[in-house]
Amino acid sequence: MTAPEPGPPRERLQKALARAGLGSRRACEELIADERVTVNGQVAYLGDRVDPEVDEVAVDGVVVGVRPGLVHYVLNKPAGVVTTADDPQGRPTVIGLVPAEPRVHPVGRLDLETEGLLILTNEGELTHRLTHPSFGVDKEYLAEVDGTPSRGALRRLREGVELDDGVTAPARVSLLSDHLLRITIHEGRNRQVRRMCEAVGHPVVRLVRTRIGPLTDRTLAPGEWRDLTGEEVHELRLAAFAEEDDDGDRGADRSTRRSGPRR
Ligand code: URA
Description:
Elements: E1 11-12, H1 13-19, H2 25-33, E2 37-39, E3 42-43, E4 49-50, E5 57-59, E6 62-64, E7 72-77, E8 105-106, E9 115-121, H3 124-131, E10 139-145, H4 151-159, E11 162-163, E12 166-167, E13 172-177, E14 180-185, H5 192-199, E15 204-212, E16 225-227, H6 230-246
Parallel strand pairs: 9-15
Antiparallel strand pairs: 1-4, 2-3, 2-5, 5-6, 7-9, 7-16, 8-9, 10-14, 10-15, 11-12, 13-14
Helix pairs in contact: 1-2
Bound molecules: uracil.
């Protein structure tokens, strides 16, 4: 008799879910028992095992990153640091501010002089979801501007500003004080906030990103980073998929979206 071929490493589904931040193993067992979990599109059952390297696990239809070794950081980017891995001009990079291993990449970019929250991860799917214009989650900025925007200027910012690459989508804009705007956009065009403000006659003097979808952090000093909690990562995933739900016809790849069990 020959020994059975060793299969791929498989682990209990609740263990993989717990690692991805969905709660304790006990809580994850409940998710499975409630038929809220699918593996490769099929409703999962208690006792199921998965190969976390290849199986696609989703909770309530939202794909969950269960691969071991995934890391997610949030950095408070200081001014004067570039959002690339290497800078030909030798300027400091955001990659130099976080652990070297495992290698991570920034999710989207902030201009050299822009400060504030930046996610870095080695998870490609989440990066795609958070940065692709089809899915873009809300990003909130505080913009200190030259002069005091009039009501007309604020309306233009809110309704859409003509830029050289087209009119901007509606934005949420409030004037917090004479020179300080809070602007929330979901597009991710190059230097968008700076160009919008400039277009209405109020160039940006200082720009700080204060929120990415559900993620905020007022405790990190410039240059500091921390791990995102599993819950924060899951909230970000939910936000990225929710954006897609708002407009089901965004024309982007929906292959990782799986319908959950009918309830
Ligand atoms: N908008 C900008 O103008 N710059 C950034 O860095 C981010 C958004």
